[in-house]
């Protein structure tokens, strides 16, 4: 209870008690491979399972068409349909969620995933790759979309395919969950 009240007062991230054998999943969406590269590094660092979020109807291949479609979807709050999630997703306690930054926020396929309810009660560590604009609203929007999960808004962001600090961040993130378990 003390932990909960402190968390509310400080507005900081705290996990609920996690089991000693907490299972970790890395999920990501990618169009051009940058976020996938980061996801695979996290997977290696944390010995997690990995799952790629995919669209039922793939995005256009031309950049301008991609940005126009994304802009429209974000404006209209459209959540594009994604392929079925792993059947065992309930087994995971900790989920790293990766996305390219689109118009200052998480990409629309990841928004679909976050809003799906599949992450209910789980600890979520968001990470993004971007083209120079930084994470912008990605992490606060993750918490907004996934209201019933425990989002650590101290996410990782990297420019395109650069992955400075990523391994350390992934390791520290998992250590936080272990500390909160004590
Ligand atoms: C639809 C769209 C919107 C984008 N919007 C932004 C943005 O707002 N800020 C930014 O820094 N980069 C933006 N980018 C660049 C991507 O975030 C960046 O290239 C990212 O690393 C791509 O990741 P991926 O290779 O995993 O798809 C955008 C790219 C696309 C396709």
User: What's the alpha carbon Rg, rounded to whole Å?
Assistant: 16 Å
Bound molecules: flavin mononucleotide
Mean pLDDT: 91
Please identify the structural class as seen in this structure.
alpha/beta
Q: Give the class-level CATH name.
A: Alpha Beta
Largest β sheet strand count, sense and barrel closure: 7 strands, mixed
How does this structure look, described?
This protein has a single domain, classed as Flavodoxin domain (Rossmann fold), CATH 3.40.50.360. The two termini are about 15 Å apart. Helix content is about 35%, strand content about 20%. It is built from 6 helices and 7 strands, in the order H-E-H-E-H-E-E-H-E-H-E-E-H. The protein is an alpha/beta fold. The chain is globular. The longest helix is centred in the last third of the chain and has 16 residues, at about 165-180. The structure holds flavin mononucleotide. Flavin mononucleotide binds near residues 36, 66, 101 and 130.
């Amino acid at each position: 209870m003390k932990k909960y009240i402190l968390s509310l007062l400080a507005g900081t991230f705290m996990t609920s008690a996690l089991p000693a054998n907490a299972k970790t999943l890395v999920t990501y969406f990618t169009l051009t491979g940058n976020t996938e590269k980061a996801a695979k590094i996290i997977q290696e660092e944390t010995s997690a399972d990995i799952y790629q979020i995919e669209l039922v109807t793939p995005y256009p291949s031309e950049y301008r068409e991609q940005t126009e479609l994304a802009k429209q979807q974000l404006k209209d709050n459209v959540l594009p349909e994604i392929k079925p999630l792993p059947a065992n997703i309930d087994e995971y306690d900790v989920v790293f969620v990766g996305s390219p930054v689109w118009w200052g926020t998480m990409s629309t396929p990841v928004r679909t995933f976050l809003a799906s309810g599949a992450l209910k009660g789980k600890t979520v560590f968001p990470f993004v790759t971007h083209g120079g604009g930084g994470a912008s609203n990605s992490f606060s929007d993750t918490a907004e979309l996934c209201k019933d999960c425990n989002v650590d808004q101290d996410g990782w962001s990297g420019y395109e395919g650069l992955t400075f600090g990523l391994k350390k961040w992934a390791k520290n993130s998992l250590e936080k969950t272990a500390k909160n378990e004590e």
